[in-house]
Amino acid sequence: MNTVTADVVVVGSGAGGGTVAKELVPLVQSGKRVLVLERGPRFRDEEFDGRELEMAEGLYLDSGGFLTSDGAMTLAVGQAYGGSTVTYTGTSMYPPDRIIEAWNVPGLRHDDLMERARKYVRENNVHLLPEKEINDNNRLFFEGARAAGFSPEQFPVNVKGCLGSSLCNLGCPNGAKQGTHKVQLPEAEAGGVEVVTRADVLEVGDRRLKVRVRPKASEAMGTPSEWEPGDYLVKADVVVLAGGVLGTPPLLFHSGFDSHLPRLGQGFTCHPAFILVGEHAEEITNDVGHPKSFFVDRGEEEGYVLETCMYFPFVTAKNLTGFGTDHAVFMDAYPRLQMILVLACDRAILQNRVVADRAGNPIVHYRFTKAVKESLAAATRAAARIFFASGAVRVHAPLADPPRLEKREADRIDSRVLAKHFLPGSVSVSAAHLMGGAGMGVSIEDSVTDSWGKVHGYPWLRVADASLFPDALEINPYLTIMALADRVAEGVLETYS
Ligand SMILES: Cc1cc2nc3c(=O)[nH]c(=O)nc-3n(C[C@H](O)[C@H](O)[C@H](O)COP(=O)(O)OP(=O)(O)OC[C@H]3O[C@@H](n4cnc5c(N)ncnc54)[C@H](O)[C@@H]3O)c2cc1C
Ligand code: SF4
Known about the structure:
Elements: E1 2-5, E2 8-11, H1 15-23, H2 25-29, E3 34-37, H3 52-59, E4 66-67, E5 73-75, H4 97-103, H5 110-123, H6 136-147, E6 153-154, H7 184-190, E7 194-196, E8 199-205, E9 208-213, E10 230-235, E11 238-241, H8 248-254, E12 273-279, E13 294-298, H9 299-302, E14 304-308, H10 313-319, H11 324-332, E15 337-344, E16 353-356, E17 362-365, H12 370-389, E18 394-396, E19 404-406, H13 413-416, E20 429-431, E21 461-463, H14 478-495
Parallel strand pairs: 1-10, 2-3, 2-11, 3-7, 5-20, 11-21
Antiparallel strand pairs: 4-5, 6-13, 8-9, 9-10, 12-15, 12-18, 13-14, 14-15, 16-17, 18-19
Iron/sulfur cluster is lined by residues 159, 162-168, 172, 174, 176-177, 290.
């Protein structure tokens, strides 16, 4: 076993870990050693070629098809230098005031998070795309939403030199998307932080970690690890866990922390989502152009958000309900499809949680509540109205029976789309906004960490990722994760000042 000594070790290099790494550069400049250990590989720019199956296999945990324990929902998380920011779409939303207030975490203020989020809005080049870069799929959503009485808003996105290839969720082939792999991690490395890829942290003990560096298989994408393959014992004064919701809580369980932290794994939420498609009579630009420009936020009123989206043929096929001819009708119409992602704003409940199996792999238990089913039905009705108002002739709606609405039925949407048609397992639900499992709060009675990500009872151990969320954020979370990670980094710097 090789032994390595550092001052600070960060586990994971995604939105949280990448942010902490960059913010700790001053520590390196003062002579300290900061390591980032990342399980996934480091991809070369030319490897992002948009091939759907190969990229999904290389970039995502379980190729993007990680299943909840009952098999009713897939969860998407990235595993790479940059974590899920390599595969996110880059829609950049500030933390909502009402949600941070409702979290009620002593010491966590909305204005503090906003100030930190603004820093990353600048660093990551967040802006609104000009009108000429908006494709038909997005334009139709905007026009249809207005005509149907909704208030669509434009998503700020973090791109630089976007060529509109619409492949964001397979890793941007043009280096345009400004994730932590493009901004914070390169800056951290330039400042002397060491990032080790293919380094799987297996266990965390008192200021020490068991790490396995895996060899690169000859056919695998990405570069070999920066370290020789093998087992390592890494010692550090401060350990920052940023492995994400399917990384951090399972690692803590596997390392035995659950006996001291009764709230570990609780508070899991994920904005369960599915896609709806509307078929137009003529071809529209849908898979060319940035995929996600507009949204309708009904979170506060009705518990859902609608977003524009455009998925690749395999993901689209997987998400459409039906078999044989029913299914083929929509897939044949791919060049004429308009697409909307509906997301439910779920609430933390006791049954929904992340744990680990004996080997330390994540297990997610998730039950769809009545409120979530009602939100998904309301969202589907709203999306169907938007499709028809924008000129669609037919809508694929999994909560209708049969799951297809013709234009002549546009005045019967309310009676055709009902929550009772939501049968877990029969509707293809997926989620990419995983939150909770090591939530912030006051003490071990209600949480795992304090508002600075310090794990209760373990002053050397911090959490700096989406598992800190005590409940759902109700909007796209990456900027809030970065703002929280920024606080964690500040806390680490203070211990050395
Ligand atoms: C397809 C997709 C689209 C999305 N689009 C958006 C969007 O448009 N806007 C938005 O705000 N959010 C979006 N998100 C969500 C956002 O990307 C995540 O919420 C965010 O990246 C989570 O940050 P994190 O630091 O918690 O974890 P991650 O970014 O997932 O990073 C965790 C990293 O830790 C590593 N890791 C885990 N365990 C270990 C271990 N034991 N040892 C070593 N390394 C480990 C993982 O390999 C991973 O690289 C999207 C997500 C996906 C998957
Ligand atoms: S749409 Fe823009 S950001 Fe997305 S993959 Fe294409 S070039 Fe990259």
